From TrEMBL, chains A, B:
Lineage start: Bacteria, Bacillati, Actinomycetota, Actinomycetes, Propionibacteriales
Keyword Membrane: no
Pfam families: MarR_2 (PF12802), ROK (PF00480)
Molecular-function GO term, any one: kinase activity
Domain annotation HTH marR-type: ranges: 20-69
Coiled-coil positions: none
UniProt keyword Transferase, yes or no: yes
Organism of provenance: Kribbella pratensis
Family: Belongs to the ROK (NagC/XylR) family.
Keywords: Kinase, Transferase
Domain of life the protein comes from: Bacteria
Transmembrane segments: none
Protein name in the entry: NBD/HSP70 family sugar kinase
Amino acid sequence: MSKGTVGGGGTTMLRRINVAAVLDAVRRSAPAPLRVAELVERTGLARPTVAQAVDELLDAGWLQQHGPDSADRSLGRPAIRVSLRGRAAPVLGLDVGPHRVTVGVSDLAGRKLSLVRRSGPGWTAQELLGVIGEVINEALSEAEVPAEDIAAVVAASPGIVDEHTGRVQLVPSVPGWSAIDLIKHVRGLLDCPVMLDNDANLAALAIAAARGGTGTLLAVQWGERLGAGIVIDGRLHRGTGAAGEIGFIATDTDDVINPEDSRGPLERAVGSEAIAALGRQAALDNPQSRLAELGGEQLDTADVFAAAAERDPVAQAVVQQVARTFARALAPSVLVLDPTAVVIGGGVARAGAVLLDAISDQLRLLTLNHPKLELSALAEDAVVTGAMRMALDEVWQRKLPTPAMTSTT
Amino acid sequence: MSKGTVGGGGTTMLRRINVAAVLDAVRRSAPAPLRVAELVERTGLARPTVAQAVDELLDAGWLQQHGPDSADRSLGRPAIRVSLRGRAAPVLGLDVGPHRVTVGVSDLAGRKLSLVRRSGPGWTAQELLGVIGEVINEALSEAEVPAEDIAAVVAASPGIVDEHTGRVQLVPSVPGWSAIDLIKHVRGLLDCPVMLDNDANLAALAIAAARGGTGTLLAVQWGERLGAGIVIDGRLHRGTGAAGEIGFIATDTDDVINPEDSRGPLERAVGSEAIAALGRQAALDNPQSRLAELGGEQLDTADVFAAAAERDPVAQAVVQQVARTFARALAPSVLVLDPTAVVIGGGVARAGAVLLDAISDQLRLLTLNHPKLELSALAEDAVVTGAMRMALDEVWQRKLPTPAMTSTT
DNA sequence: GTATTTACGAACGCTCGCTATCTATACTGT
DNA sequence: ACAGTATAGATAGCGAGCGTTCGTAAATAC
């Protein structure tokens, strides 16, 4: 069973290919319904072939039939239109953090059917499993999807995830927490494939999908921790399994990778915790600054960026330092990967243009091709969205037998 | 004509698919000839289908028939065996440097038919075109392949290459030299697709193929200049077009990217020129060292590594410094890419274990997953080999309609 | 109310691959 | 030396699928 053999087969396989071609054409234009004539044009197949495939897909529940469009007042007999029946195989995305559980349900076309968040002040591992179950049920009932319809689940986990076993290294967030228990638990609730992946990877997938899917994307998740996901032409790059761990990049002053400490040098230098600490120090050194006014004793990361946005020179110096450290750490990877865009998400992304411009200025000096530098538009929902996206990809890959075909005319 | 449509079609396409499946099966086992029964087993097709496909491929010249194997003394009627007829579509690879032109001809199965090198003490652009023509003809006649049989050509060029237009930026090597002229010239000699790519990319492709094709490879070309190619699961990663330009990574003491200077900070710091300079300085500072003895006035890069291999502490210090600078520059990319292996080729690779071990020690401190660190086994032929490889990929991609197919059983 | 336009539906012919059968060839054992 | 056997190649019939062509249904325009 050497994988990767070029498939061959009889006419039944041909039928499967053509049905898949029709389904794929419908998917591409989702959510707009299509007339059969349009499908004929797009697939290059004959009308009877398409009609037969459509019948079959209608029976199987993958497509749904629409009445004639009342807005489309054209001549002749009105065409029957079909569109993807999203409910045929809805998927579920799961984002579990120590203080927040988010569950999203999406239909086949990628429409969000429901999105339920629940926050709490630190659960134990056991409680967390219970909460997850509740939130899943809530999301399902809000989406009006029975549990047994769910076709795939993807869960997000911090740390480094082994793609196949689902084993996780470096997870500090919840004591006693195990992703394997999570998978088992979810498998008990929903009878379908359950996969697990790194949260930064999933966020990257969501952002890449939102940007159109082509090119190389480096999606940075910047909060207390620092990670990145790499998406190349719509596909996640995993490397050996730990790709994108930018938090462990050495800085000019710190290059210690300690197995005891789950955080790396760059995280220690520019994580949200570190930014707040730099801000506090700067406020102490300059008590009359706007920064000190804004923050007081409990000075926060947000305060630093707020003061910098108000052109406080003390805060701006802090931002400048953070941006410089970050840009110098990231520049080598930008040179090597040469991405189309670098997108920054996570808590620190709320800093906005102040930080982005500072990074952009530094990065411009250190790279050849300057990638677009953007903030993530998806904000905190990026991870769940990416989880749903990956679950969708899984479902589609199972359903469509041929991924692509090079024209040989 | 939106690209990427899932292909569908009639029975003639089915036939094409099955013929391609048979051809692919033969290719996979090349150069070993296969019996029809084996093809039946490997493709999963019925015997008449395979037989018909084999007939067709024999007529078209893609396969050649072998007599029964005299060594295989089994019962029953001896089977006729078929194998890839490499001469069906030979390809040509071209590596053009300022002082050396290398041309290789390969058959479809990847066997080298000929490899011709010619060195000269600096040609003008006009002379170079002439020399290229001569060397191509020499390689063709040595391989006994008529020029009109060549199915694809790939030429290697230093600098950053635009994949489609063939335009090149940053080429300092030969004054008045233009890769566009090269392509025109070759198109005039050989009537087939001519492509151009970065030499580091092509070397990476060759090394990846030699290693088996899966996983992520970072292949460094380390000579006077410094570049790298990235191959992910057998496919080249180009980014926007300038991926792998590690020569421009900033060092601790130098981060200037000057459009005037075609070399980047890391090249200036650890390029072979810089290593020699460091060695000369060290020799001056320590006149009684083995390094000073070996090198004298005209101390070379090779002398530094030779002295270090003989455990000269002065030379070892130089190597240590080079390794440290290199490892610190490369570590971020290793963290982000998380490659299966890092392979070092080019002139400096001749340094051998002395340098490799030093780099390995440094890299181990700065990364999470430690990739295999190796020297390129292909030495100076890596670029031509990669050029032939890419030309082969091009030919196969044109011939095989379906690249892969996910089994849906 | 008729003509026109557009789309759906059914019948026919073609190609292709699979199953089953028959023939060809060389080795083995008595 | 001859019959037996095992393996491979060649051929005929069957079924499945696609494409082409024709007829029919349903809406709009005059």
